[in-house]
Specification:
single chain, 307 residues, mainly alpha, 16 helices, 0% strand
């Protein structure tokens, strides 16, 4: 997978995530939200497993982990401050420290008011598993692959949101390991088969009796389908490239911008139209803020060297 294809995919996926985090629109379409959640976030974790595998170095691991932890810490502190300043909460230093180190949806929401920062420590764990997987013997890899299949099946019927970051990271690493065992089909008939399976499973995701079983395959079918489409129509989708390159900063800032917009944009429209207006403003402002953050980092050599 080329880096540009990966970034275009991230650009598309971050737009789906912003849509899902829009608490005006997503509650109007709960089944659609359930469907999109079945693959939009998992694909972010799968993507690194399709890059060229190189033996990890200690310097690379420390630098990447430091970058993730730095931004996790910054936004964690910001959210703890505003949550305890703007709302009538009882601050607990012990619970705050516990939430920071254990991560997870519920612990983080309890001290920051939001769940979405769970992604950062979970992604850190997932990438460390990737580094480990990269250096073990073939026999150990085979055992890890078998274990990963079991983990994926287990979490298809158990909510990963109920677990701390280390368990969440292991689950998403398992998704990446399983997905990396298959190559993107290049021949037309196999590509059409993937599309048909994705469309068929997408329809079944709206059938109550089938959706809990079908969602097991959605991260993989969604990944291969989106990858194939972007691979074949990359030229027409390059407008998503700058969004994808800024996806981490957009992810970190968009919930705060969304909450700010809810407080300053008057609701003089229907609920759906108001949600669309807030959605578009969130995307535009998040992109601008993320672009400015990147420019500031690049303008300061000391920070750029580490982040």
């Amino acid at each position: 997978m080329s880096r540009d294809v990966s970034e275009i995919m991230k650009g598309f996926l971050i737009l789906l995530i912003i849509l899902g985090h829009n608490t005006i629109i997503s509650p109007m379409f709960p089944e659609l939200d359930f469907y999109l959640r079945s693959f939009r976030t998992p694909i972010f974790f799968i993507l690194p497993w399709l890059y060229i595998m190189k033996p990890p170095t200690c310097q690379k691991i420390i630098r990447r982990s430091g970058k993730i932890l730095f931004w996790y810490f910054v936004f964690f502190i910001v959210q703890v401050f505003f949550y305890n300043t703007l709302f009538d909460t009882t601050f607990s230093f012990g619970e705050t420290i516990k939430a920071f180190f254990l991560g997870g949806h519920h612990l983080l929401k309890g001290v920051t008011g939001y769940m979405y920062l769970w992604f950062m420590p979970a992604f850190l764990v997932s990438m460390l598993v990737r580094d480990l997987y990269n250096v073990v013997s073939k026999n150990v890899r085979n055992a890890i692959i078998i274990l990963s299949v079991g983990i994926v099946v287990f979490f298809n019927f158990n909510a990963y949101t109920d677990f701390p970051a280390i368990i969440q990271g292991l689950f998403f690493a398992a998704l990446g390991i399983v997905a990396s065992q298959f190559s993107l089909p290049k021949e037309g008939r196999y590509v059409r088969l993937i599309y048909m399976l994705f469309i068929g499973c997408s329809i079944l995701m709206f059938v109550p009796a089938a959706k809990d079983w079908v969602k097991l395959f959605m991260p993989f079918l969604g990944f291969w389908t989106i990858w194939s489409i972007v691979d074949n129509y990359e030229y027409h989708l390059r407008w998503l490239l700058p969004i994808g390159k800024l996806s981490m900063f957009i992810y970190l800032t968009h919930p705060l911008i969304f909450q700010f917009l809810l407080r300053v944009v008057p609701n003089n429209y229907s609920q759906f139209l108001y949600g669309i207006i807030i959605l578009m403003l969130t995307i535009i402002i998040s992109f601008i803020v993320a672009w400015c953050m990147q420019k500031i980092i690049k303008s300061i050599p000391v920070i750029q060297d580490y982040l």
